[in-house]
Specification:
By secondary structure, the protein is an alpha+beta fold. It has helices spanning 3-9, 18-32, 40-53, 89-103, 164-176; strands at 75-79, 82-85, 105-110, 115-121, 127-138, 145-155. Strands 1-2-6-5-4-3 form a six-stranded antiparallel β-sheet. β4 (115-121) and β5 (127-138) form a beta hairpin. It is globular and about 45 Å long. The protein starts with a helix and ends with a helix.
Length: 177
């Protein structure tokens, strides 16, 4: 998501100020929130737009302005359900959200806790939910940081979810593209 798309999502025009963004978010989320009969997907999209429009530096998971959006991502799998990336946590979070939109439907976003949930239909037709939790970790003996991502995968309907390693590998390919 970019600034222009986020502004459109909240019904705002270029030049919108922080107060306009906050007001638009509150008004839209009141109507779209699932607790009042709205759609989880719409609420997630509104929350994502709001996240992108927050002022720089107010959120530890805010993407850095200097790092490229879609370059090769140095990632290594620790296990089938976790990754380590040598990128700032905000960049990893933003890339996960973008890749989540390509995988399926981003159904929940919480930049404060670093959680992204994606609902998608697996190759076998089973609707599944992939949850990713992003956490920045210092590298021992260095001022660098690495970002760890832990994944869980659950079927939302009867049937079996695909192997989590296969889903995570697919997500990594989307992040790198």
């Amino acid at each position: 998501m970019n600034r222009e798309r986020a502004l459109r999502t909240l019904g705002l025009e270029k030049g919108a100020q922080a107060a306009d963004i906050n007001r638009a978010y509150r008004e839209l989320i009141r109507l779209a929130h699932p607790d009042v009969g709205g759609s989880t997907a719409v609420a997630a999209r509104i929350t994502e737009a709001y996240y992108w429009l927050q002022r720089a530096g107010t959120n530890p998971l805010e993407p850095s302005k200097s790092s490229p959006r879609k370059s090769a991502t140095p990632a290594k799998a620790k296990t089938d359900d976790s990754l380590v990336l040598h990128l700032p946590a905000g960049d990893v979070f933003a890339r996960l959200v973008d890749a989540g939109h390509e995988l399926g439907e981003v159904s929940y976003i919480d930049p404060t806790t670093g959680i992204v949930q994606v609902t998608f239909t697996a190759d076998n037709g089973v609707v599944c939910q992939l949850a990713a939790t992003v956490q920045a970790n210092p590298v021992t003996g260095s001022r660098q940081r690495e970002t760890q991502v832990e994944f869980t995968l659950d079927p939302l309907a009867s049937g079996e979810a695909p192997p989590i390693g296969r889903v995570v590998a697919h997500l990594v390919r989307l992040i790198r593209s």
